[in-house]
Design goal:
This protein is mainly alpha-helical. Helix content is 66%, strand content 11%. A hairpin with a 2-residue loop joins strand 1 and strand 2.
Length: 126
């Protein structure tokens, strides 16, 4: 709908994955918790990449609607782009271990920030 190429989504995914890793491993683990081994955490990339893509879509195409699915099982609910973005993150937080929720929140905020900034640049030029 928004004439967004595969390359843009691929870059969003990679940059969002890195942003989530920086938010969770470096900011939370290393700087705030002084965990010198936290930079080896690799578990936050995929969710961060998707969170950045969903935030991008929520800004670029807020009227778009998406079918929500739970573990690849379609649920008969149609969500707006913003609702999808927040539902994805809420589901990720619910599934995370209780001691890891703050780390997940920071990972999602970092990825959302990336999607937000890239969407702002996209909207300026399109």
């Amino acid at each position: 709908h928004a004439d967004i190429s595969f390359v843009v989504f691929f870059v969003l995914y990679l940059v969002g994955a890195w942003a989530a890793w920086i938010g969770s491993a470096i900011l939370w683990g290393y700087l705030l918790k002084s965990d010198t081994w936290s930079y080896k955490a690799e578990a936050y990339g995929a969710a961060g990449g998707m969170a950045a893509q969903m935030m991008f879509l929520a800004r670029v195409r807020p009227e778009a609607r998406f079918q929500f699915s739970l573990y690849m099982i379609p649920i008969p609910i149609s969500l707006t782009a913003w609702q999808s973005c927040f539902a994805h993150s809420a589901l990720d937080l619910v599934q995370s271990q209780p001691g890891m929720r703050q780390r997940q929140i920071l990972a999602h905020l970092s990825a959302w920030g990336t999607g937000w900034l890239l969407a702002g640049e996209w909207l300026k030029h399109n």
